[in-house]
Amino acid sequence: MRVLIIGARGQVGHELVRQAPPAFELIALGSHELDISSAAQVNQAVAEYQPALIINAAAYTAVDQAETDTERAYAVNRDACLHLAHAAQQTNIPLLHISTDYVFSGQAAQPYCESDLCQPQSIYGASKLAGEQAIAQHCPQHIILRTSWVFGIDGNNFVKTMLRLAQTRTELSVVDDQHGNPTSARSIAMALWRIVNLYQTNPSQPWGTYHYSGTPSCTWYEFATEIFAQALQLGLIAAQPSLNPITTADYPTAAKRPAYSVLDNQLFSEKFGINPLDWRQELSAVLLSLRAHSQA
Ligand SMILES: NC(=O)c1ccc[n+]([C@@H]2O[C@H](COP(=O)([O-])OP(=O)(O)OC[C@H]3O[C@@H](n4cnc5c(N)ncnc54)[C@H](OP(=O)(O)O)[C@@H]3O)[C@@H](O)[C@H]2O)c1
């Protein structure tokens, strides 16, 4: 079974390649090989490679930059999803796609379910929601996996930023009034491969939109505290910077983030038998890999 992985050089894309079961033939493309904002390139790639399934891990993920680079954000996060949905629908293959907790407003007081109202607060969130809608409308065989606060070995993420800052700073201020779920890129990749495996044995799957994130929920400040505690223990940093909890108002950003975007994973667990992983254990694995890379 041939699987086309798009966005193969991103955080999740790398892990999709790393975690791929050997039984599948991979066509893993970065943005230089396939620009999904071009319908012609999408159609040509699908015609040339004739995949049995597409996984889209590509997105415009620069949340603050999207506020001014709006056209590009919509081209990648909405229009490209429409091109992929059309191509998948026309060739009768499934499309697995990743979306975000930023489709929600953040005003809730309990974890968001799939059926909860989407009210994005940013261009990034709005463009991702438009992409979800394009896929849901035009490609019946789809899985949209909403996830949050992604970290891993590759690319840029909060864990790597904290480790970098710890090299030069003795004191750091981190937002403590935004609540979410750190999620390892590896766990997302493994969940997607499990769906592919299930599809291979039974092409009739409960297609639709699902939530999948790490557990338990925390704030960015709590996430940073755990990163530094583990990094110190593993010898990745010489000393822990002193951490100050601050409010969102103390740290203005171009894009508004949801104050509370905890995702309810129950539906996904029920339908696919995939349970959320403890992000603290996933963090340990990422830090060990980073340490091994730095020693190599
Ligand atoms: N990062 C998070 O915290 C987070 C949270 C929730 C949901 N998500 C979602 O999770 C998915 C994976 O995110 P990630 O963190 O792995 O993102 P990432 O590391 O930023 O990777 C995204 C990839 O998309 C590629 N890309 C961008 N524009 C493209 C285009 N026009 N054609 C083809 N490829 C293109 C990029 O390639 P280049 O680098 O070559 O441009 C990049 O390798 C995305 O759907 C994202 O919205 C992420």
From TrEMBL:
Pathway: Carbohydrate biosynthesis; dTDP-L-rhamnose biosynthesis
GO molecular function per UniProt: dTDP-4-dehydrorhamnose reductase activity
RmlD-like substrate binding domain ranges (all copies): 1-288
Reactions that this protein is recorded to catalyse: dTDP-beta-L-rhamnose + NADP(+) = dTDP-4-dehydro-beta-L-rhamnose + NADPH + H(+)
UniProt cofactor note: Binds 1 Mg(2+) ion per monomer.
Enzyme Commission designation: 1.1.1.133
Cofactor: Mg(2+)
Keywords linked to the UniProt accession: NADP, Oxidoreductase
Stored PANTHER family: DTDP-4-DEHYDRORHAMNOSE REDUCTASE (PTHR10491), METHIONINE ADENOSYLTRANSFERASE 2 SUBUNIT BETA (PTHR10491:SF4)
Chain's role: Catalyzes the reduction of dTDP-6-deoxy-L-lyxo-4-hexulose to yield dTDP-L-rhamnose.
Family: Belongs to the dTDP-4-dehydrorhamnose reductase family.
Protein known as: dTDP-4-dehydrorhamnose reductase
Source organism of the structure: Thiopseudomonas acetoxidans
Source organism phylogeny: Bacteria, Pseudomonadati, Pseudomonadota, Gammaproteobacteria, Pseudomonadales
